[in-house]
Amino acid sequence: MVTEEPMATPTEKQILTLAQWFSPAYPVGAFAYSHGLEWSVEAGDVVDARTAQAWITDVLQHGAGWNDCLFIGSAYRAASLQELKNINDTALAFSASSERMMETRLQGEAFCGITASVWPVDLAGLCYPVAVGRAANLVGLPLTLSGQFYLHAFMANLVTAATRLVPLGQTEGQQIIRDLTPLCQAIADTALCANLSHLTSTAFLGDIAAMKHETQYSRMFRT
What is the secondary structure of the chain as a DSSP string? Predict the structure, then answer.
C-alpha cells in the first residue's frame, strides 16, 4: 500500500470546487450514460429498488467504482507525464466494452476541456478518472475528498438512471443514495491509498450488460 498526501482539513474553497466539478451543471454529460444498467433493466435483472441497489453496489465494490478510485489516486501521484500516460493507457485497457471505453473517453475529454478553460491547468487526452486525479493535483485539492466526490457522483448518476429506467420513485432513489454514501466513502478511503497492483474487476454481469447494450434495440442512454 502507498499513502496519499499528508492529512489536512479541506478548505471551504476546495470543497466548493469539488462540488462544482461533480455538480450536474458541470458539462461532462454523465446523465447520458447508464453504465450497462439500461440493459440490466431490459433483461429483468434489475426490477425494483432492492435489485437496483444491489446492482450498483456490485459495480462500486467490484467493478469501475473501485478501479476508478485506483486510477484517480495513481494519476494524482504521477511523477511524470510518461507515468501519467501509462496510467491512462491502463485505464483504457480496463474498459470491458467499446461503449465503456467511449464513456470514459468522452467524459474525460469534456472534463479536460472545461476544467482547462476555467483553471490554469494543462489537461488533454485523459480518460475521466485519470483526468480527475491529475486535475485535483494541479489545482491543489485533497486526494481523499476528490475521490469521495467522484465516487458519490458516479453512484448518484446510476441511481438517477435507475429512477428513470426501472422506474423508481424519487423517494426510493434518494434512499438508495443515502444508503450507498457510506460505501462510497469506505471504497474511496481504501482504494486511494492503494496502487495499480490492486486493480481487479469481478462485476461480470455489469460488463456483459455494457456489451449487450451496444446492440439493444430501444434505449435512452448511450451506454
Answer: ----SPP-PPPHHHHHHHHHHTSTTSSS-GGG--TTHHHHHHTTS--SHHHHHHHHHHHHHHSHHHHHHHHHHHHHH--SHHHHHHHHHHHHHT--SHHHHHHHHHHHHHHHHHHHHHSS----S--HHHHHHHHHHHHT--HHHHHHHHHHHHHHHHHHHHHHHTT--HHHHHHHHHHHHHHHHHHHHHHTTS-GGG-----HHHHHHHHHHTT-SS-SS--
- The domain spans of the chain are 33-209
- What's the pTM? 0.95
Q: What is the pLDDT of residues 19-36, one digit of tens each?
A: 999 999 999 988 899 999
CATH of 33-209, one of 3.40.50.300, 1.10.10.60, 3.40.50.2000, 1.10.4190.10: 1.10.4190.10
Written as nine digits, the cell of 104 is 470514459
**Dist. CA 86–CA 206, nearest whole Å:** 26
